[in-house]
Amino acid sequence: VTFMVAPTGEANPIDGGRTINGIAHAIIAAGMEPVPAIVTALVGDQHSSLSAQFPITFIVGPPDRLESVGAQPPQVQVGGNASTIRVRVLDCTDRWPVADNTVVTFTLASGEGTLSPATTTTANGWAYATLTSPAETGSALVRIRAGDREATVAVTYIAGPPFDIVVMASPLSIAANGVSTSTVLAEVRDELGNFV
After folding, report:
1. In 3-state terms, what secondary structure has residue 194?
2. Which residues are within 8 A (CB) of 159 and not within 5 positions of it... i.e. 6 or more apart?
3. pTM (2 decimals)?
4. Percent share of the chain, pLDDT over 90
5. With 0-12 CB in 10 A as exposed, 13-18 as middle and 19+ as buried, what is 91?
């Protein structure tokens, strides 16, 4: 028995395609494209032959690589501003996005902020979450996980525009002699009290 797979894939007959008790076996190796295929079993010679076909579908594999991991924007002002965290999940070929509805989780590995949603699913391989900034400056590290693959992306929280300024001097009084000095300090903060 001769086995063939079309349009992609490979058939490897067991025992050279010979029948044992009327049955021949083959191992079908998937092609590199997630497409429907037809397996054909052909028996006979040039004078008489018999064939049968069976459909098989090659599907994309499980998550194997996370690419295009990023935050947009990578820096956000404190106080409830948002950064969109994105990832594209590919299968083991590194060419095909995973199946739609593949689960992706987003967690804070370090830092503050709020992630929503914590768990989502892919569409065309893409998954997104929103990181909302806290009231304090600093940074957050977001861990993204799909299957047993993971990646991280950092977001920096920056102060808002100047809102308040306090001026201090030390010492407050100096002699009017043209030589004495006082150090003046201006403290500038945003609306949430972060240094600008």
Report:
1. coil
2. 77, 78, 137, 189, 190, 194, 195, 196
3. 0.78
4. 81
5. buried
